[in-house]
Structures are given as structure tokens and as C-alpha cells.
Amino acid sequence: MDFSLPEDVLMIRDAVRQFVERELLPLEQEYGFEEYNLTAEKHAELVQKVKDAGLWGLFVPEEYGGPADIGWVGKTAVQEEIFATLVGHTVFGRPITEALYLCNDEQKERYLLPALWGDKSASFGVTEPVSGTDPSMMASYAVAEDGKYIVNGRKIFISGAENADFMLLYARLRGSTGRDGITSFLVDCDTPGFVVERQIPVIAMPSGSRTESPCEVSLTDVEIPARNVLGTAGEGWTNLQGSLGGIRLGFGARCVALAEKCLKLARDHALSRETFGKPLADRQAVQWMIADSAIAIESLRWITYHAAWKLDQNLDARPEISMLKIVGSEMLEKVSDSAMQIHGSLGVSKELPMEHIFRGARVDRIVDGPNEIHRFVLARNIIRGYWFPGY
Fold first, then answer.
1. What pLDDT does 208 receive?
2. What's the confidence (pLDDT) of residue 207?
3. Does 262 score more than 80 pLDDT?
4. Which of 36, 160, 252, 356 has the most CB atoms at less than 10 Å from its CB?
5. Are residues 165 and 280 in the same domain?
6. How high does pLDDT run on average in the chain?
7. Are residues 263 and 375 in the same domain?
8. Whole-angstrom distance, CA of residue 22 vs CA of residue 364
9. How are beta strands 214-225 and 194-199 bridged, if at all?
10. Once rounded to an integer, what is the mean pLDDT over residues 317-327?
11. Are 248 and 340 part of one and the same domain?
């Protein structure tokens, strides 16, 4: 089996690596290792530099004007380089949820293409105060009426809603139960009755951050034209389940990149720091932390690339994506913790990035589906014979 990357992927990956090292890594100290401290002006300046370097639109499919398709494996390799920095990684643009590719021709012009090219930003409206992401308990409802839908409900922990241009909103048709009737809508955030009530301060994300703070959103008699239904009314949950693979795949690449950042810092410090006449690198306790970190990182890398390969082959990668979500968040928390321990008091200071990475890893165990839910789904699929290692 050939594990090498194609030449075109290597060229893009190396170009991204050079840009990150030259333009972004030097900004980390200036902005305190916080992407959200980057000013709008500086962000725009960096986006222009990315465009000038020919690295903009890497996640845009070729049919929509992007570069030659490098596949999910190629995108994973590129994302490892993008996420090597804590400041500026968003200037390359971001993959969008695959559900938006279900847009019809008219919707593509108004929503898909602007989202792909960064002219519009989207938020993702699923989670609710009571139901979380459980579709059977989703309370937001839509009523069909004279060529439009009237939607009422409330969404919570919606990332980036404060600054989004539109939301991919999920609500059930009134009278439906369970997953049946759940429908996805494209709703402009300036629609009357659509209100971002508040930003919710959370760990690892300062209140009032420029783009990403999770928000609570209320929907009061929001009128959505029937032409803004994404796909078919009542089939929103089916659309959703098949649309998160690519977004979640990037989670694995990010955890690999940040864990490697921690490991490199830990290694360098262990080589330079002496205690009782010997470098820390000679201490078995430190050696084991370094070795265990490397093993954990490499394990996640191969789960992630296997998932990417399956997506490229149009195979079901949901089991592997649940695995990388679990392994990634727990691995990153452990590796960053070990790096802080090796650094001692300096490790928990904000002069180094480990404490920021550690806080973010704790959040990762909850966002995008708690790890317990991913374990439950994975175990259920194994027990029922839908999936088994080696199949």
C-alpha cells in the first residue's frame, strides 16, 4: 500500500508550511496565542497575503472555481500545516458543512458560493437548550403557510452566530415526532424575529471574541420563504448526518498539529533544562511522557488519514470520524498536560501556548457531540454488526 502523498499535494502543503512559518507563527506572542485577538484589519491583511500567495480557496471544489481537487487526504495534509499556528489559521478560509452542497442553483448563488469564497459567513443551528443535539427532542418548529414557513424556537451554543450572515437552521415541521419532519432552512440573520440574544463566555474563548463565541439565538415568528428549504422538507436530519464528515475530519488534523506543537516544545525544553546536573531529557519519567505523547499523536494521525482515505473512496467513514473525535480531544488534553508538566511553572504561564491548548482540548471533549455519545454510537454499530475493525 502506498502511503506517500502526490506531488501536487506536497507542493501545496510545503507552500502553506512556509507561509505559516513566515507570516503567522511570529504573530503568536504579539496576540497572546489567541486567534480571537487578531484584529479585523490584521485578519484582512493576512487574507490578502494568502490570496497573493495563491493559497486562497484550498477547500473550494474545482467545479466551483477552486484549485485542482486534492481530495480529503490532501486536505488533511494541508490542514496539519494550517493548524500549526494558534494565530491566523482562519485566514486560509474554512471547509463548509457538506449539507450546503445540497443547495439548488438559485441557493448556490445566494449562499453556497459566497460561503465557499468567504464573502458570507454561516452559522449552524442545531443545538437547543433542552434537547442538545438529540433530534427526537428538538423543540423549534416550523409551520407551512402560503409559500413560506413560520419558525419559532431557540438555539444555544451556536458558534459565530453574532457575526454570521446566514444560518443553516434545523427545525421540525409542527406535529412531527422523532427525526421525522426535521427540516433544514437557509435563513438570513437579519430576518425579523431572528435575534442573537447573547454571547456565552466559555473556557478557552474570551467573551466578545470577533467571530467564534457561542451564542444563544431566539426565533420568534421568523418568516422563511419556501424556496429557502435546503433539500426536501422533512428530510433535514438525513441531510445532516451525511454532511459532517469533512468538517469533523479537520478536527483530527488540528489535534495532530497542536499536539505536535506541544511535543516539540517539551522536547526542546527537556534538552536544554538541567536539574541536579543532568538535562531533563535524561530522566526516565520525562522520556516516558515524550514517548507516550509521540505514540498518541501518531495513532490519531493514522485514524485521521484512514478516515480521509475512506471519504475519498466514497466509503462510510463515520466510525473512524467518531474515533478521531474521541482520540483527538483526549490525546490533545494529555499531551498538552505532559508538556506543561515537563516545563514546570513556565508551562502554565501564558508566555507559552500549552495552557491555551489544554483549555481548548477540554472544550473539545464536549463540542461537536460529547465523547460519550460518540462512544455510544460506535459501540452500537459494532454490536449490531454495522461496522467492525478490519472490515
1. 45
2. 46
3. yes
4. 252
5. no
6. 90
7. yes
8. 28
9. antiparallel
10. 92
11. yes
Residue in 131, 133, 115 with CA at minimum distance from that of residue 123: 115
Q: Looking at the domain assignment, is residue 390 inside a domain?
A: no
Enumerate residues 6+ apart whose C-beta is below 8 A from 384. none
Q: What is the pLDDT of residue 247?
A: 78
CATH for 265: 1.20.140.10
Structural domain range at position 216: 102-111+120-234
What pLDDT score does 358 carry?
95
Indicate the pairing of strand 148-159 with strand 166-173: unpaired
Which grid cell sits at 125? 443551528
Grid coordinates representing 221?
Answer: 415568528
d(CA 353, CA 238): 39
The reported pLDDT for the residue numbered 3 is 74
The end-to-end CA distance of the chain, in Å, is 17
Structural contact between residues 124 and 118, judged by C-beta atoms closer than 8 angstroms:
no
Tens digits of residue pLDDT in 204-251: 665 444 456 789 999 999 999 999 999 889 888 887 776 666 778 899
Report the predicted TM-score, pTM, of the whole model to 2 decimal places. Answer: 0.90
If asked whether residues 60 and 171 sit together in one domain, one would say no
The answer to whether residues 288 and 370 belong to one domain is: yes
Q: Which residue has the cell 522520556?
A: 287
50 contacts: CB under 8 Å, gap ≥ 6: 19, 56, 91, 92
134: DSSP letter:
-
